[in-house]
Amino acid sequence: MAGEVDVVIVGAGISGLSAAKLLTEEYGVTVKVLEARNRVGGRTYTVQDEQHGTVDLGAGYVGPTQNRVYRLAKALDLKFYDVNEKERSVLSLKGTWKGFRGSTPPFWNPFRLLDLNHIVRTVEAMAKQVPVQSPWLAAKAHLWDSMTVKEFIDKTAWMSSTRALMTLAVQSLMTVEPHEVSLLAFLWYINSGQGLMRMICITNGAQEKKIVGGAQQLSEGLARKLPAGCVQLSSAVVMISQEEVKVTVTTDMGSVHTGKYVILAIPPAVMNKIRFQPALPSLKNQLLQRVPMGSVIKTVMFYKTAFWRDLDLNGTCMSEDGPVGCSMDDTKPDGSSPAIMGFILADKSRQLCQLAEKERQQALCQHYATIFRCDKFLKPIGYLEKDWMSEEYSGGCFVSSLPPGVLTSYGRVLREPLGNVHFASTETATYYAGYMEGAIQAGERAAREVLCSMGRIEQAEIWQEEPESLDHPAADLELTLVEKMLPSVGSVLVFLASGASVALAYVTHRYLTVPDNV
Question: Are strands 31-34 and 231-232 parallel, antiparallel or unpaired?
């Protein structure tokens, strides 16, 4: 018997450790944190490379409105730096190549711009209709949950370029193909992330900054703030037995931990590795069978110099034409270890995971040489990658996906406590679900649920808003008046067709009508 505490927390990622810090530091509650891996950090993973220093191979990006991350980083005395976006980005769709600045693709065809603006505007407006705490209560929840995002894109977009860009957006944000996720789940995700534009942008968006020294420092810093011996690594939980007044947690090494409460701060899909006594209720058991993790391989390619900047390129590419869906400059803030970070996403990651690492590296080098039109990309000096699909205690990354029908049928039990067992992890967040920000919110919310059950706080205190960071205020990303007023391609075509009909009617009446006196 390993001992008894007030709360046993399963998972030493940002979510579980945030819960532990709040309980111990602010309320003096005793906790035990059990982690299956031999490290803390969960889906953040910063490696210490001998040649290139710290490299984030897991979650790493932070942006405006992610105020909990900023608050935690400040408490841990961590610093941020801006992801480079000074030079041109590159867009490659079906063999067409464009270099551009800013966030608007350089379409010369006005119909392409109208179509893209219309679908972005439509998604933003629809997302705001989805309650972040209870998306299944949206007025059109059942209709939207019966559709895939692909069906919505095919129905809404007129241009192939718009369909391609929206597909890239889904792949980049959720690491799944558009046909794998429900429209309702996508809209909920967008609303929790403060809008599509906020989520996909670098400058003033969710990829604006990185943490100097790596994002895993958030978890490492949280762990240091806990009482000695609180965190136990290499301890995979295999059974949770719940009785009336206590919960017993057993690990694969045979250690047994008891507490009055348990917080599960692991992805829903990973909970299938745990046996529950009594067995999980029907809806919860069924839910855990329907929330697969996304598919992604995160890669970092190192070069001797950041030569792409001399070509007026910032390292950002969006492409449907090769293995990497999106890339960004990953050079250190002092200019050392020049690198390009690239995500291999969704279907492409499932295809390329079958290659040897050296083969993937060669495929990426060729891709970068083609996308950025420079053969210097064929000669890297280093390469690191992380196949998150092979990670036993994540099962994938960035986040669980929700296929059609899941939210409306099972969403109500996603974060609903089961007796004295409570649920955290970024999947249960209502603010930046899937992000480090969401992980903090979920962990702190679960901790407050426990405190409420203990009688330490009122129920109204469980959900708490986070004040805006004074050090990192957010600029407005609302659509401009012009963007709001621009018509869709369909509306323009209807207008032109109506105008043509009126003109034809006038010509017919003016020149082809037989006078009455003839």
Answer: parallel
Predicted pLDDT at 244:
85
Domains of the chain: 3-44+65-77+211-292+399-461 (3.50.50.60), 45-64+78-103+203-210+294-393 (3.90.660.10), 489-518 (no CATH)
More confident residue, 511 or 52: 52
- DSSP class per residue in 147-192: SBHHHHHHHH--SHHHHHHHHHHHHHHHSS-GGGSBHHHHHHHHHH
* pLDDT (0 to 100) of residue 188: 98
The pair of three-digit structure tokens given for residue 332, joined into one six-digit string: 């250190």
**In whole angstroms, what is the distance from residue 50 CA to residue 437 CA?**
30
Picking from 173, 213, 215, the residue whose alpha carbon sits closest to that of residue 60 is 215
Element (H, E) at 88: strand 88-93
> Looking at the DSSP assignment, which residues form a beta bridge with residue 89?
100
Which of 314, 308, 317 shows the shortest CA–CA distance to 105? 317
**pLDDT of amino acid 515:** 46
Per-residue pLDDT reduced to its tens digit, 193-207: 999 999 999 999 999
How many angstroms separate the Cα of 423 from the Cα of each of 20, 258, 463? 13, 17, 14
Q: Which bin fits 275, alpha (ψ -120 to 50), beta or left (φ > 0)?
A: beta
In the chain, % helix, strand, coil (3-state, to 5) comes to 40, 20, 40
Using alpha carbons only, what angle is made at residue 375 by residues 374 and 381, rounded to the nearest 5 degrees?
Answer: 115
Rounded CA-CA distance 92/99 in Å is 9
Alpha carbon 480 to chain centroid distance?
A: 26
The whole-chain average pLDDT of the chain stands at 92
Q: Give me the phi and psi of 202, to 5 degrees please.
A: -90, -75
Contact (CB, 8 A) for 488 and 482: no
- Kindly tell me the sign of the dihedral angle through the C-alpha atoms of 266, 268, 270, 276: positive
What is the pLDDT averaged over residues 353-382? 98
Judged against a pLDDT cut of 70, whether residue 498 lies above it is answered with: no
Q: Which of 207, 210, 208, 233 is nearest to 220 (CA)?
A: 233
